[in-house]
Design goal:
The protein has 109 residues and is of the alpha+beta class. It has a domain of 76 residues. It is built from two helices and eight strands.
């Protein structure tokens, strides 16, 4: 929990690490790492249809959207391991993100 004689991360900050599945059998090698933000994409979208008899039908569809720049989805799509600083309210703020980036700059995965 220490780096360079100090904290590894700012107080209240954790890391969300995602590794891409690479290759058909999942044994491929990642193309590096990326310090990212959480991409808030909703992957599933519910559609409701009134059946006309007092009931509703729910269909769930994949809602693909372009990946956010410097986000975890973009990194995973590029076969990179995404490392995202997170806080209890999901993404860390810009100050904590910058502090975390500086602290992790020499860390090797």
């Amino acid at each position: 929990d220490r780096a360079k004689s100090g904290r590894l991360l700012p107080a209240g900050i954790g890391l969300n690490v995602n590794h891409p599945v690479i290759g058909r059998d999942g044994t491929g090698t990642a193309q590096g790492t990326a310090l990212t933000t959480q991409d808030p994409q909703p992957f599933l979208k519910a559609d409701y249809t009134d059946n006309g008899d007092g009931t509703w039908k729910v269909n769930v569809n994949v809602a693909s959207q372009p990946a956010e720049k410097r986000g975890d989805v973009e990194a995973l799509s590029a076969d990179k391991i995404s490392v995202t600083p997170i806080s209890p309210d999901w993404n860390s703020g810009p100050v904590d993100f910058a502090k975390t980036a500086a602290l992790l700059s020499g860390l090797r995965l």
